[in-house]
Specification:
It contains seven helices and 40 strands. It has 598 residues and is mainly β. The protein has two domains: 307 residues, Neuraminidase (6 Propeller), CATH 2.120.10; 256 residues, no CATH class. It is elongated, with a radius of gyration of 27 Å.
Length: 598
């Protein structure tokens, strides 16, 4: 076989990496936030909890509102101080969030699964990062200006929000209401926190106060007390203690104003709408949806949205002597330049969102100071932002699946190493690898955010690149305070390939089970797949040229890659098994560095 060398811009000397002139380029099967099966359960324990409460509702065997929701729709490893590696498994539902703080704990009402204190966080304006009430384990942000009931804010602008309840809620304060057992609830509550009274609402059935929770100091009406005690999940596990008294609010539901009795508990918001059919008059509020919008405003509404419509982005010299960024449809149509500059600009990853206009391409450019600098832009190239300014080469920016972080390669401390920072942070990036004389670059996130796959070369010979997987371990994760005490470089990284040829450009599949990469072990560069643990390595292309830099489609069924099999580098697409290869670009100029939905 002809041992053709990889494409010119992939093959620049390793020496150049250290001084900056070049661009270089165990999660099991199941749910993943951006894969085609993202509505599956991230843990069998989550599925068991859901089955016990909501499977009968789904099957029509019980006439009761959802406890969690019809299905999960987002799972991830979120920072939590006391969890292994500082990360806990979570999964979001319409009504709440399930959590596994410690996988070794299987006891308790939900078998070791917990139910997030989401209303407490949204009312107080504190994201809970650990067990303690201290500042170190809570991240402040503005209280949630999201309606507690009814339609979204744009259609429901006058309804009280979680922030509205700060003055009458028990969160991180000693506030308590007086014991009102025996009275009826007619108190009204408005968005500005004003409290009134309507006798007609107090006369509604079920509004008599039957319980007073001394722990938090709030009253519970019969209609909510009956609901929590008759539920399929123990009340303390599903609801927690009330953090407000019940109040009548007016909110739009389906565009119509309705009187709704609302009470916030530690873990849930509960509503009573007398105009609803009897079996659905009392419901769990959509706390999971509300909290997700508050914590991840950039991600949109996955419970109500299909996967984002993302183009293939790639670099091309078709219009200039330098690479610039272009986009096209998955069939090669609609090829369009979105950057144009005398200095090189290349794409590397996508900050994805279920809100189409929030999707952004991350890459690097030399347009600012002839050093590679991190940039992002909208899918049409507008709103180009310099994400980080430095005197070093910063490149290969891989955005985390939750859209909050970026891992990138940089030579700021000498050789190329990996660094991570929270997007929008003003703090210095956190170093992830530290291997003197090595090149560490081309990072790819595991779908749950728990680790990074990357390429490394400590030999200096191009044909000694190997692929590693490192596990992230956090001790703090705030917008301007990100601490990862353990490096992911060897010996804390797992070597996945071990050849005397180049294994490069890894990309993890959306479901986290496979890695697509380039290898030269059969002579020229070809595309290979392997399991996430390095097993079952197999070649899926076999061309007369060099096939490089694979990238996955959002559903994991297709792979886009570069090839010079026709003389210059063009972009191709194929099925994940290597079949159905189709050439997408054909312009007589080099095209490369394609990214597709990751």
């Amino acid at each position: 076989m002809n041992r053709r060398r990889p494409i010119e811009w992939l093959k620049r000397s390793l020496a150049a990496t250290a001084v900056g002139g070049m661009l270089l380029g165990a999660t099991g099967a199941g749910a993943a936030p951006w894969s085609g099966n993202r509505t599956q359960f991230a843990s069998p324990r989550f599925e068991q909890v859901w089955n016990s409460a909501d499977r009968p509702v789904q099957l029509g065997q019980t006439q009761r509102s959802w406890t969690w929701g019809p299905s999960p729709w987002f799972d991830y490893k979120e920072f939590y101080k006391q969890s292994p590696n500082g990360l806990r498994q979570v999964q979001y539902y319409d009504k709440s969030r399930m959590e596994i703080n410690n996988p070794s704990v299987t006891t308790g009402p939900l078998g070791g699964v917990t139910n997030g204190l989401l209303p407490v966080e949204m009312v107080s304006g504190r994201v809970k990062l650990g067990d303690a009430p201290t500042e170190a384990e809570n991240a402040p942000r503005a209280a949630a200006e999201i309606p507690v009931a009814g339609d979204p804010a744009l259609q429901n602008p006058n309804a009280p929000t979680y922030a509205s309840f700060r003055g009458v809620a028990t969160t991180d304060n000693p506030y308590k209401d007086q014991n009102k057992v025996g009275q009826r609830i007619g108190q009204t509550f408005t968005k500005d926190g004003s409290i009134g009274f309507r006798q007609d609402l107090a006369d509604k059935p079920g509004t008599e106060i039957v319980a007073y929770e001394t722990v938090t100091g709030h009253n519970v009406p019969k209609v909510f007390n009956d609901f929590r005690n008759a539920g399929p999940v123990a009340a303390i596990a599903a609801f927690g203690y009330p953090i407000t008294d019940p109040y009548w609010i007016t909110a739009k539901v389906g565009g119509q104003d309705k009187d709704i009795l609302v009470q916030l508990f530690e873990r849930r918001a509960v509503t009573y709408t007398p105009s609803n059919p009897a079996q659905y008059q009392v419901e769990m509020g959509n706390v999971g949806q509300h909290y997700f919008q508050w914590r991840y405003p950039q991600l949109g509404t996955p419970w109500a949205s299909s996967e984002p419509n993302l183009p293939i982005a790639f670099a091309s010299k078709v219009d200039t002597n330098e690479f610039n960024v272009y986009t096209m449809d998955a069939n090669g149509a609609g090829q369009s330049a979105i950057t144009g500059n005398a200095k090189e600009t290349l794409p590397f990853s996508v900050q994805r969102s279920w809100k189409q206009e929030n999707n952004r391409i991350f890459g690097d450019t030399k347009r600012f100071n002839d050093k590679r600098q991190l940039v992002s832009m909208k899918l049409d190239g507008s709103d180009l932002r310099q994400e980080l300014s430095s005197g070093a080469n910063d490149y290969n920016p891989a955005v985390s699946p939750d859209g909050t972080k970026v891992v990138f390669a940089s030579d700021r401390d000498g050789n190329a190493d990996l660094y991570v920072r929270n997007i929008g942070s003003t703090a210095e990036p956190t170093r992830l690898t530290d291997t003197i004389g090595c090149v560490n670059q081309h990072p790819s996130w595991l779908p749950d955010g728990s680790g990074i796959v990357y390429e490394s070369n400590c030999i200096g010979n191009y044909f000694e690149f190997e692929i590693y997987r490192g596990t992230l371990s956090y001790s703090q994760d705030k917008p301007n305070e990100l601490t990862i005490p353990a490096l992911i470089s060897p010996p804390n990284a797992t070597r996945l390939t071990n050849n005397n040829t180049a294994d490069r450009f890894p990309r993890v599949s959306p479901d986290g089970t496979r890695i697509a990469y380039t290898a030269t072990r059969d002579g020229n560069a070809e595309i290979y797949l392997m399991n996430i643990d390095g097993g079952q390595q197999q070649r899926i292309t076999n061309s007369n040229g060099s096939d490089d830099a694979p990238t996955w489609s959002a559903d994991g069924n297709r792979i886009v890659f570069n090839s010079n099999r026709d003389g210059d580098y063009e972009i191709f697409i194929m099925n994940r098994d290597g079949s159905g290869q189709i050439q997408l670009t054909n312009n007589g100029k080099d095209d490369g560095w394609a990214i597709f939905a990751q």
